[in-house]
Amino acid sequence: MPDGDRLTKPLTREPEKGGEDTGPTRPAVPKPDGGNELLRRMKKIDPDQAKRYRQRSGQ
Amino acid sequence: MCDNSPTGTDAPVGLILAGIETEYGFTVEGRGADDQIEDAVAFVRGYPGPCFVGWDYCYESPRADLRGFRLDRLAVDPEDAKRDAGRTYGAPHEVRSDRILPNGARFYNDHGHPEYATPECWSLKELELHDTAGQFVLLRAARVLADATGSTVSVYKNNTDFHGSSYGTHESYLVPREVGFDRLFAAVTPMLIARQILCGAGKVGSESGSRADYQLTARGDFFTESANAETLFRRPIFNTRDEPHALPQKWIRLHVISGDANMIPSCTRRKVGLVKLALMLELAGQAPRWSVSHPVRAFQALSRDETRAYRVALDGRNWTTAYEIVESYLAAAETVLDLDAELVSLIAECRALLHDLSGPFVLAPRAIDWAAKKLILDAYREESGASWRDPVLQAYDLEYHNIDPADGLYFALESMEQADPMPSLDERLARLDGAPERSRAYARGLAVARFRGELTRACWRSLTFLVDGEETEVDLPPDRTYPLQLETAANVGTFIQILRNA
After folding, report:
1. Predicted TM-score of the model (pTM)
2. Could you give the residue numbers annotated as active site of B?
3. Does B163 touch chain A (CB under 8 A)?
């Protein structure tokens, strides 16, 4: 990552010097709940399914 | 004979006609990628609904470049070239097996993938409805193939096989020719890079470059250049293919190939809406200018940023964030454009999600595919202690995109009211029968529904009928609202007359 200025506005306006990173370092992830249809489906999935999944390249 | 002579009509101010083409991944039990072209042909041809066969290729120009030249040939994936060495599949139009449906959509085999190209739509809501209605087309065709072969057929609305092969979900936006490449590139590229935080589909792992546990986008690994006309290999962030699907002197079809296929319908709407805002601003001469120093690196760095800081390197060793890029378009749109209710709502939704991504992360898992999928994966990892290298995570990733409502993980989240819902069943089914907006897709669809016996060829920009032993081609200008009288035309002659007077 470059060490120049942080631009908070596009070039059509006066660029402003910015501050530090504001993004959080770790997502606060809520757990799925309610049921649970999701877990029922996940249990049916073959763990190696994606290993075998091969496709031709498309566009 | 293809006629490119101008007609001199003007586009309605502020409206941009758009469509989405999705190449679906699919598996047939006991078969593999070596069989994929034959299987895709059988898949498409098995579609049991009403359709017209006779796509007109005469206006297609995939090697034409917006920058004013034409490529000698298009690059192909070396792995597929090896697969195809010494093999022939038949005449190209037979292999493509195009079907045109009564809603004006195109359903065909594109490089071994069943592709559903929606009817062209003015509104975001209609496009979302048609995109989700397309999943019914795929499911119906898959059921026929499963019955015919006695094998399980699964269909995935995703963009990668996790082993280096990608297939696309493309967007088309019709804009006036005079805007030109330079302005389009400058106006749209920063948005194509930044919007992934609000509409990426998410992916476990990486398929090029440095290792990643989880990415915002499925497609980010496959871009190698900022701009070019390629789509199968050496793909760009900004595609320069100049194939307008309309009068070329007047129109450019911006062909966006850098987006992901979305399962959450609101994500599809947002993906298209953000590009529309960028285009509308540029047409007003007011699109923000961000000089992203290296679009490919910026796209890929954002895709791999798990901190949600989303920094973007700019020229002159400066930097900004994807938050600020998106917000600059939203703010400019509010200031400059005469926004309809749909776009006002889009801006409010995007602002709420930008705020959520920078902090609470409560709305995003309901509304953005990458975040919804990550919710599933994080919960599993926390429960099981699995590492990101556990192959089951990619299996869950794949099944998130399974379009069968009885199996797909997105549909499980939706049934648990933990992800934004699909449109109503009635609304989606109705879109299979017609295109209510009365864009040129409405006319095309009616021709298929009512006069396919007289139709000899059709494509995005024209219809050709056989009347009294003579072929008659009728142009479908994209800037018209087509009249309701087409639904009651007594015969094909009257239908053609109404089209010509539209």
Report:
1. 0.93
2. 110
3. yes
